[in-house]
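Data availability (excerpt). The following record was deposited with the supplementary files.
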Amino acid sequence: MIGSRRRTKSNINVWPGYVDALSALLMLVIFMLLIYVVSQLYLSQTLSDRNSELARLNTRLAEISRLLGLEQEKTDALQQEMVSVQDNYSDSLALNDMLGAELDEKNEQLRAQQFDAEAQALRIEDLNEAAGEAQQTLDEEQLLSFEQQTLITRLSNQISALQKQLGQITAALRLQKDLTAEKDAELQRVGKRLNTLLAERVNQLERYQSEFFGRLREILSDNENVRIVGDRFLLPSELLFASASASLGPAGKVELDKLARVLLNVVEEIPDDIEWILRIDGHTDLIPINTAEFPSNWELSTARAVAVVRYLSEQGVPDKRMVAAGFGEFFPVAQGNSAQALQKNRRIELKLTDR
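Predicted structure:
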């Protein structure tokens, strides 16, 4: 019996354990295959979405190119119109100068004629007084000599001639006044025309400002930190510079490249006779700085503005059309000492304006 028990133990079946192990391994392999298939499906869907997005972007790029072509045609027409306006403006200035010279000359003549008329009037008064005195003397004596009668006749003739001359001078003065009134009216018309031309030039610069900010707003719209306040673009300093530094970082150069492209496109459309300027203003928060390089926030804000000007100059923006200024912490756009207010006040402001 003991031998029978030993034989039973030695014949134990181990295959169920192997089967369980193989089953577990097979399930693991199936699970891994399932994960692989799912990931491939997800990747295919992602690639398909990206292809669709690329197609949509290509379509949008073609539309923008078409719009830019139309805008270029409008710009050419505007430039031709500007040449005509400039010619008219020059003619108006020349006419204004000529009319001013003629008016000055006429005024001098008028003053001279008025002086002569006053002198003639004084002479007439003197002659009248003399004639009256002579007549009174003759009435008292009741006897006139031939010489006295001749003198009275001569005096009377002189008085008549002077009165006639005075009438002519009066008529000439009246005519001169009419001419002066006409010249004044002409000067007023010329002045109104000049004011109209100047207003048109201001409106043209405002149109280019709107176009510049519109394009810049579209290009920088993906950056939520870029803000627009009135007619200025506000770029956070953290986007362009590291803390307490005036050296442009890679991310800042990317944003300034976008700005330079937009500005150069708009510059090509602005006529040369419009005096415009791009102001770059540097601002800091109210936390003071005192380093060997930057003794105060004035130096830091100014150095940052100059760094932006130098980089835009390297991208082709004309040097004579840019100005840099540093305002330190003295013109904040947000009040308080919170982290958000301090971040808003650390900024670079851009403004397209006239000189």
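Summary of structural features: The longest helix spans residues 15-141.
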